[in-house]
Structure formats: C-alpha cells, structure tokens
Amino acid sequence: MDMIVDHNKLAGLSFEMGAIRPPSEGGSFSLLIRVTRNCPWNQCTFCYGIPYNHEKFNLRSVDDVKADIDIAKTIHDEIKKVSREMGYSGAVNNVIGARLTRSIPQLGYSHSFISVFNWLYSGARTVFLQDADSLIVPTPQLVNIIEYLKEKFPTINRITSYARAKTIFKKKEKDLEELRNAGLSRVHIGLETGDDELLWKVKKGVTSEEHIIAGKMVMKTGIELSEYVMPGLGGKALSRQHAENTARVLNEIDPDFIRSRPFTPMPDTPLFDDYEQNKLELLSPHGYLTEIKMMVEKLDITGRVCFDHFRNPSYRGGPGDLTHLLKQDYDGYKFPEEKEIVLDSLEKGLTISEERFLQTEDFIRLGSL
User: Fold this and answer.
1) Got the DSSP string for 190-206?
2) Angle at CA of residue 106, ends 102 and 110, nearest 5°
3) What would the mean pLDDT of 191-219 be, rounded to a whole number?
4) How far is CA 307 from the centre of its chain?
5) Could you tell me if 272 and 280 are in contact, meaning their C-beta atoms sit under 8 angstroms apart?
6) C-alpha dihedral over 46, 368, 212, 255, to 10 degrees?
7) Shortest CA distance to 312 belongs to which of 232, 225, 193, 217?
8) Which of 143, 176, 229, 338 could be disulfide-bonded to 333 (CB atoms 3.0-4.6 Å)?
9) One-character DSSP codes across 156-183
C-alpha cells in the first residue's frame, strides 16, 4: 500500500534545538523547543560555557519560536496522517516508523523529523524549553509561547525549563503565577552548593540566601522544582561545609526533586586548570560517598532525592559488569520514607574497595558534563 506523503511539506523541514537538556526531559520523551540561545551567565568555573561553545547568549523572538512550533506541528500532522491512512487512527508505532523509512527516503530524515517522531511515539506529552535560562524571557512573551504550544499540541501535560536562581530571585511572584497558569509545570535550577564560600569561588553569581528565596518562590506558586547539587565541587578542602550547607539550603526550600550531579573537572574550564595545577584535590570514590552521606544525613525534606545520571557512584563486579550503587530512575527516593535506604546503600558502598569504582579520571576522559 502506497502512502500519500506530501514531500513538498516535509522535505528540508527543521526547527532549532539547543545543545543540552536534563536527562529527565530528554531522549524521546520531550519535544525540545529553543526559546533562548546559550547561557546568559557563562562564568561558572566548572562549566564556563563549554556546552554552548562560548557562543553569545541571546533571546529568540516570539515569532521565531512560534515558527519553529509550526514546523514541529507540520511534521507532527504528516506523521499522524500516515498513521490514519494505515488504519492506526493517528497512533504512532514501529510499523509507522518502518513505513515512513521506506516511503520517504529522500527526506534524509532531519534531526527535527526524528525528534518529533520519537516524541509522538512516546505519547507527545512533555516539552522542554531550551536553553540554560528560559525564564529570563519577559513573562508576557514566555506566556505567549507556552500558550501557543498548548494550542498547537493539546496532548501536552508538562512543560519544563532550566532557570537561574538569580533570574527567579529578580522576578515577582505574579510572574511565576502567570507562567504556572499558562502551563509551565517544572523548573530545573542548578543549586550546585549551598555554601557561600564555594558559590563565590566557582563564580556562580548567586548567594545561598538568593537560592532559598528563589526556590521558595517557585514552590509557593505550585510549579514543580528540581534542584541540582554537585557532590565533590569543593574538593577535599571544602567537602564538609559543602555538604552541610547544601543540606541547609535544601531544607529551607524543600524542593520536589533533588538531583545529584557529581563534579568532574572538564577540559577548558578554570576548575580543570586548578585540578591540573594541583590547586584542587579531588575526592576519591569513598570521599564522594562520604560527602553525599553527610548531606543526606542532614536532609529534612519531603521531596525526592534522585541519582539519575551516569556519573553517580558505580562499581565493577566483573568484566563488563558495572553496577550503580543507587537507583537511577528519574523519581529517585521519597524522603523521609526512603532516607534510610539511601544511607544504607552509601554505607554499603563504603565497604567496597575504591579500586572497583569508576574514578573521576574515567569521566574526564569521556569529556562529558
């Protein structure tokens, strides 16, 4: 059976996507819509704009973003049309994918086409607004974009974004309420540490008190909040104060999610230079476990603690056998109910020889944030 595919509509269609997204918002699950380009700060010494190739930050116009949404909708509609013609009532499955692969090879399958197909295959429910700080967009403009997204794709039930705490700190509560009412569901913030000395040293551009105020504002308005922490960021010298003050800030905020992203010095960043010049002494595998344990012991929260990144502690059992010490699903462990499970796992890790754990140097060689 030959499919009626409008090649003139699909050939060469693509929309702009940025370089990064949270693991819980990526893969096949979220449609990636680029609202800003790059990072407005780019000074953090552990990142230094590397994910964005040091490119200049800029806001995309509402019209440009809407044009990208329209392109995604055109691709969406054509895939759905093929599904209906095949008798699947618009559902997207492997059979549809195989037929599209055979019937329209001349398209070359742009990244945008593949992204929309995978999104439809996953249910077309979630959207992630890129890049590093979408909430820096003036609130009326961002509300306009979110509302347009929901108009074009009624199946959406979650819209999320990265945001800098400093950006939220400068906003009014009514701004967040307007974004929530428009459909913004979740915000991801890089806390990294709650220790003011370390925040200053890594040039985060925000204080612990500003983090607390911003986090509480998000929680008050009913937008879900994911706070990211970076075990090991202070090296051996600042390990204890990093752990204890990070727990202090998180207890004040009580976010929905805390996500662990162990520190790895990345080439071409100031902290990598410190590491190479022996100015920063990294934690050993047991050092990481001890620091995480110190933080977890002091956590008094009602959200979830997640270890949903490959750089969280993992150890070798045998050739080709790698075991993560803590589960890596996106929902993690519910606190306080599962706090003891996390602490018991960390204690177990401290009984395993350090030589069996993946080392920080292993991740440096991978060259991935």
Assistant:
1) EEE---HHHHHHTT-S-
2) 95
3) 98
4) 12
5) no
6) -170
7) 232
8) 338
9) --EEEEE--HHHHHTS-HHHHHHHHHHT
Torsion, Cα of 82, 88, 90, 96 (10° steps): -50
Packing angle of the helix pair 94-103, 111-121 (nearest 10 deg): 160
Question: CA dihedral defined by 221, 178, 164, 207, rounded to 10 degrees?
Answer: -50
In a domain, 25, yes or no: no
pLDDT above 50: residue 121:
yes
Q: Quick one: tokens of 230?
A: 């970076």
Which structural domain range is residue 304 located in?
Answer: 221-369
Domain count, the chain: 1
The pTM of the whole model exceeds 0.90: yes
Tokens of 30: 């979220």
Buried b (16+ CB within 10 A) or exposed e, 337-348: eebeebeebbee
- Per-residue pLDDT tens over the stretch 47-69: 988 888 888 999 999 999 999 99
Location of structure tokens 């070798």: 316
Cα 33 vs. chain centroid, distance in angstroms?
Answer: 14
* 160 occurs within a structural domain: no
What CA–CA distance (Å, rounded) separates 248 from 142?
32
166 in a domain, yes or no? no
Q: Note whether residue 356 is domain-resident.
A: yes
Q: Crossing angle for the helix pair 339-350 and 285-298, nearest 10 degrees?
A: 160
At 189, the amino acid letter reads: I
